[in-house]
Here is the input.
Amino acid sequence: MKPRLGPLPALVFALALALGGFVNSPLALADLNFSSYVWLDTNMSSAHEPINVLFTINGTSPNTETHIGHHGWNTFVCGLNLYFYDHQVWENTEHHMATGGYCDAVRDHIRTNQQFDDGGPNFGTFNMGAAHFEDRPGGCYFLSHRPLSFNSARDDIWTAFTNGGHSTDSYYGANTDVLTQCDGVSVQGDGWVRRLVIP
Amino acid sequence: MTIPSVTRVILLCTIAAGGLVAGTVLSGARATAAGDVLHLVVETRSSNPADASRVAEYWLDGSRFRAKVAETTSEGTATTSTGPTWLLHVPPRGTALYFETPVGAGPTRSVFAALYYMRDAFTAGAAKPTAVTPDATVVTMGARTAAFEPASGLPLWERTGNTRIDYIYRLREHLLPAALAADFFQDAAGREIAYTIETTPENAASRVHFALYSAPALIGRPLKKTVLSYGANRWTLEQVGQVYGSDIQVSMSLLGQQPSEIRPGGEAVLTMLGPGRLYVEADGSVRLLVLKGLVATSVLAPDRQTAFSVAQVLQPVR
Here is the structure.
């Protein structure tokens, strides 16, 4: 005789499934063991930017670049690389995407780098991103441009992905170092990291 | 925030009066005196017909800033202003940013104004002077040439390539603060509309809504910089960063919401600031992170012992 679930066990089972789905979110924490910053060089000078975006699940570099471009950051720009540090390995920036070209007065710009592992269960291949809003006044600024805000660029790309139907969440990473530039102006991230799912 | 009706009438009258002097630039203006509010109605006209025409109204009180911008494009006219869901970032130097946070949607941002951009570039040495008269300083920076008033720093015109933009001041006046509502420069949460300033721990402590920890010096490193930010977004309402010497930073943030997760990894530790987590950064420096309620404190130091020593000597600013 084939066993059947009565109404109450079936309800409990359904609730368990629902709760399980919530708890075991694809964005559950993984072994994200990387520096919270990208650096100008491996000597770790004072010039660095917070990693404030993670592209997860299918965050290969081609997928990440395609989705960033699809959501409006469609200008591929090259430039001086910064170094990502992950699992005791240094690696140059793999990709740059921006909302404007090199000579534009202001733009959003992100450096991304795919990592070697899958980041842990249910996390998939992921890309780390350091996003910033910058201008180009000329002079002595950090790299060729001057970062004006880390938060606004991160939130721009987060908004674009959210409006595009991507699942997102965030965690507080406390990467709040003050970056002081050659003209004395300082910029500081608020410490939040956005995770964006690329299905 | 809503502007009281009486104030609205005053503002409307001043806008109307501004129309009478359209096309003029008042010369010999002084910079905003202490306590005064500089009130501007500025039209920017571009020689490129594809550009939107724009009329912006500004109220500037030192570092405080409010603006209302009416922008006309081929799709119609849109008016925006600072208020409960709008924030302006006007740093002492650099480009002005306009943060838009519509209710129920994620934050977006667009750039709408850079009143003092070329003046600041000139001051910083990035823009070079090509002509200086009592009425105008003409500077160039890359492909951009601009003229601004020496006394006030306000722009007169700018040219990039074949496009020239003229700044036409329809109204320019100094108001007494009493002409504006007491909360005119505040957002809906009662915070002043501003974004990032460099200040003192005492001033920062008087502006934030948490107990700010600081010290004149830490382990032999003098306090070199205090950066206060607020109104950035819904996740971090207020933030104070303090730089000591070249290798110690103390950051305190009032978070807008309880984080679902704290930075992965780390070691559970007990500090004088409370229970927290300790992380070894890629360069070997050590970060202590303590979260008490919605206030996150981060101490970055070159080594573990120094980090704990810093946490031990920090004191609330009275």
In short: The longest strand of chain A covers residues 106-114. Chain A touches chain B through 52 residues (CB under 8 Å). The longest helix of chain A spans residues 7-23. Chain A has three helices and 15 strands.
